[in-house]
């Protein structure tokens, strides 16, 4: 219907719609248009529902979902699968399995099946003929389906921070996404980078990626690109047992002071004096990004580096033992491959970028719609005022407001501030 894709609702029932899309495609292939249409309408209703389905009654109350389909919805929600796919129709089970590969959607999975790939083993065997991103998806299929424990996200963030501050000690690093919203496990690692001078973030980004590749933290490259002034890297990363030894304690310290969550407690520019690790001497035993330290321009100073602009006084529901097992040691070593997104932004975009990258996606959409009602326009780059629209189409871009913090964005929109853990809608 011509709406911009950024306004597509977030699908809270993907587990169900993935399976339903499979069935819809299957009925279409069998020329059973009537049944296919039934599924298509139910999929639309499920995708537009504002939250995950939590009961049979809730499924039944959806438009175009009758008792028969509501039963299937509830079976998937409550058991995690549909027996019909598991037992009676191995073909659909395989297509569903293949559609869970990173880079492969339901449509591609159907096509692969039609081309004669009838099992995950066959897909693995033919991986070399797939596009590069799907090859990576196949290679790390099992790992990428696993959720990431919070402590491991902290460890990865700590490592990124460690190398970034060797490039320039003034760097700002914040772990965003579901981590910042306080979740115990995350789908991926989302890291925002910036620099107080408003420019050096580009330099950090350009130098950081090769350093992280050389270190071995980044194992596979998915994509890299610009969005105006923002630079985004998407890839796969993995920590080693050695990383737990070297950075584990540092990560525990970071998690327990909630610094990574970049919580600002005032309307002022954040306090940049927060440091991680107790002293400089402890960092001498840490690996160095060989030859990349600008010791002249950026003398290493305990006070200069900051893990994130924020104060550790947050009301976030992060326990002081986050990152530890009950006896106080860092959590046990795991080294699965994980999805990682790194975004580097100029400081003037920090407030809106932090807000965007923290999400949730549904929360972001509500904020953008609210901005629109106020004749403003909110993006990861800025909050603009004086935007003129003709229906959905923007006639003028308006003027960006100065929004150095998330607080300032909420204030400009006339909203009470919501802490990250209150944005889990
Ligand atoms: N985002 C968005 N719209 C999108 C994709 C992302 O607004 N289409 C924003 C909101 C997300 C944030 O970026 O919270 C990070 O994206 P992720 O896909 O990593 O989502 P989360 O971190 O929220 O969840 P997960 O634990 O699954 O990674
Ligand atoms: Mg994420
Ligand atoms: Mn992400």
From TrEMBL:
Active site per UniProt: 72 (nucleophile)
Family: Belongs to the DNA polymerase type-X family.
Organism placement in taxonomy: Eukaryota, Filasterea, Capsaspora
Protein name in UniProt: DNA polymerase lambda
Signal peptide boundaries: none
Low complexity composition-biased segments: 278-290
Entire-sequence positions represented here: 560 to 984 of 984
Domain of life: Eukaryota
Region (Disordered), start-end ranges: 278-308
